[in-house]
Amino acid sequence: MSFQRRRYPYYNRLRRLLPLVFAVSLSLLVLFAFLSFLAPHPGDSDRLPPRLRHTSINIGGGSDSIKSAAFRVPRDGGRSDRDVWRSRNAEFFYGCSNASTKFPNSKAVTRNDRYLAIATSGGLNQQRTGIVDAVVAARILNATLVVPKLDQKSYWKDASDFSHIFDVDWFVSFLSDDVRVIKQLPQKGGRPWSPSRMRVPRKCNERCYINRVLPVLHKRHAVQLNKFDYRLSNKLSDELQKLRCRVNYHALKFTDPILKMGNELVRRMRLRSKHFIALHLRFEPDMLAFSGCYYGGGDKERRELAAIRRRWKTLHINNPEKQRRQGRCPLTPEEVGLMLRALGYGSDVHIYVASGEVYGGEESLAPLKALFPHFYSKDTIATKEELEPFASYSSRMAALDFLVCDESDVFVTNNNGNMAKILAGRRRYFGHKPTVRPNAKKLYRLFLNKENTTWEEFTSRVRSFQRGFMGEPKEVRAGRGEFHENPSTCICEDTEAKAKAQIESRKLGKKNKSTNKDTAAAVVTVPNDGQSEEDEPDWSEPDYEEEQSDLQDRGLYNGTSLDYDDPSTSDEPELEEMLSD
């Protein structure tokens, strides 16, 4: 009995404690669940590359360095086997686009009863390709070209017309021997003439224009081609390709106010430094949304970019990891900075950034600014009052950036969009000024594993991967890619000067060898193998003939098409517009 009396109080106390223990345990379980819900998913930060979770990098050491364990980034560009401000052998190549004697004057071939009007599409540089190709299309059709209409309705909502951006009088007069150009259609019966509207397929060649557009011109005498961007094949006769170059590199000249402001921006950059880099960062929210890439920003990033993607009903949802492996994702600002340092550009280099709103704002830009503190844009080197005449017009602001990028010593592009292509081709035509395009396919893996390597190894691999992506002569095979990017027909080689220079180099080499036998170090010149097809992202579209052949093979094309515009066609911007500027 005494044992039972002692045991009952113990069990009574235990019974009273059990609810308290249960309540405390349940509270802890709820707390842990709540904390787990708030914590980022491991897939947002660990499984995928930490693209926007900036890794710590050590710049040069010292009290002002950013802490790091092993990956030490120097402040200078290190030793380089090349002049980082010029392309090898650039002096032996030059632009050549004059018409031959076999190319008749426009007065001899233009028919007085044929008028071709063009409505361009997209941003400034996409529209520029349409204007260039419109001149060639008019020549193919032996028609008079009406000064092209610019796109005022799509994504950018820019009300500028042709004469606000380009010198229209210069355009008309320069092309007078090639194509007759007028500013507006003549009246018909005392009334404004309304042309027949139609479209042509992408990459339409000469035969395509003759078969599709010419019959309508014969019947209606005035035709307007709508959504006119990339509607002309890359594969044309040499004479027509040279005409393309004359339009792009000579006939299209910005208006005096744009030229004056653009040249002033260049002058101010030159006052700061003898050389400077222009960087087309292209890390805006719309570009990232279009690319379908993921940068480690978690659900917030996914929600924000998904909202932007809804503007394009036809935009496919891509696998972000696959996009990155294929080289279709822009580098982050930090990655661009690391690539430039590895290529030999030190922290004293001045950078002009052509960019809109950067995704992630100053947080995204901070690592790039730490690597290159001399960091400028048109907004920092010009006053608000100076930019006011241009600020409300996206195309005019883009034109200012275009001029600075064109005049820069080195141009760096972060995507393969229209501005990048046009500037790459222009810089090749005017002396092969260095144009750096990241070999994103190869650099992706390198950036992913950079913390496990030394800076010396990282630098060596970046320089190896970038061979063929630096804008040097003959690094891209003739006929490959968009003609606006690689105008090979319009680039000539001064073989005599090159041969003479090689003879002088051999003589100098023999002299040095005879006088410095014991001390001379052997220097091995690595030949430029050009771009590897495996490294290049596939941005191309099939030409008209290839496209029709493919459709016929699949039984989807019977030789007819709906050429005329459907008035119910949506104004939804085409996908290529997002790669414009």
UniProtKB/TrEMBL annotation:
UniProt keyword Methyltransferase present: no
UniProt feature coiled coil, ranges: none
Keywords, ordered alphabetically: Carbohydrate metabolism, Fucose metabolism, Glycosyltransferase, Transferase
UniProt xrefs under Pfam families: O-FucT
Tree of life domain: Eukaryota
Region of interest: Disordered: 506-581
CDD domains in UniProt: O-FucT_plant (cd11299)
Bias kind Acidic residues: ranges: 531-550, 563-581
Entry's family note: Belongs to the glycosyltransferase GT106 family.
Protein name as catalogued: O-fucosyltransferase family protein
